[in-house]
Amino acid sequence: MPTTIPTTTSSTRPGSPSAGDAYFETDTKNYIIYDGAIWRAYESDGGSGWSGSNTYSLNFDGTDDRLDASFVVTPSASSGTISAWIKTTSTAYQAIVSTADTSGVVTWGWMAVFNNKLRITFRESGGTIKTADGSTTINDGSWHHVVAVSSGTAYSLYVDGSAETLTNSNNDGTWFGDLTSLTSTNIGSHVRSSAGNFFAGNIDEVAVWDSDQSSNISTIYNSGTPGNLSSLNPKAWWRMGDGAEANSGTTIYDMSSFSNNMTMVSSPAYQSDTP
Question: Alpha-carbon Rg of the chain, whole angstroms?
């Protein structure tokens, strides 16, 4: 006779579980298992990138820490979305997520903090730099959710779930698929012929889509608490300690179904500091 798994909800999970305790969560439709430290969740129809909680982020020292991958997440996409949670007090020009041809300095794109605001910028083969800047100060030492979107023809930026008023905008929506010779993707730095523009602070829950997700901003922002992005099918989703890396090791696993894993350079640190 099959064993009946007890039920709970995401807001009424047992407060003092033992390792191995398992439940079916009726509101999220996930199976959850306590591993001795945190609850881990598994969707009832297969694997999930969502562990049921957001416990860790990565801290970058602003000097040489970064994540590297020798691939481009959405190399053929001419529209797309980048989402991340960030916390910083630095006034430097610092990269959040970037892509580039690492053999030179003429082809690149990135989402960054510039003049204490959110920026998206792309450049093809040394041509005109395409840039849109936001209007909200985001280097105040608080957690902020930042999103850059290209519809294919125009940029939009979002901070903490709200659309930004764009300034300094050469707004044609240039995106990954509009560039040639891209060779890398990085988090916490911009790597062209050398690494620079290092991020100083914490980054969490980075996701990339090869489509315009502006209609899903409220879902991604989730009222200010990182949530399960699996249903939105990102092309990459790096959970910064809450993925398969489980707060250990030098690989940050892509928790989407596309296995775009990244490697730590110069030891960014796991921290229990999250939105």
Answer: 19
CATH code, 168 = 2.60.120.200
Q: Give the percent of the chain with pLDDT over 90.
A: 69
Answer whether residue 42 shows pLDDT above 70.
Answer: no
Instruction: Give the residue among 202, 155, 201 at the shortest CA–CA distance from 178.
Output: 155
Does one domain contain both 94 and 34?
no
Q: Tell me, what DSSP letter sits at residue 174?
A: -
Cβ atoms 181, 192 nearer than 8 A = no
pLDDT at position 46 is: 42
Containing structural domain, residue 69: 57-271
Domain assignment of residue 241, yes or no: yes
Nearest to 107 by CA among 189, 191, 210: 191
Continuous segment of H or E residues that includes residue 217: helix 217-221
pTM over 0.85: no
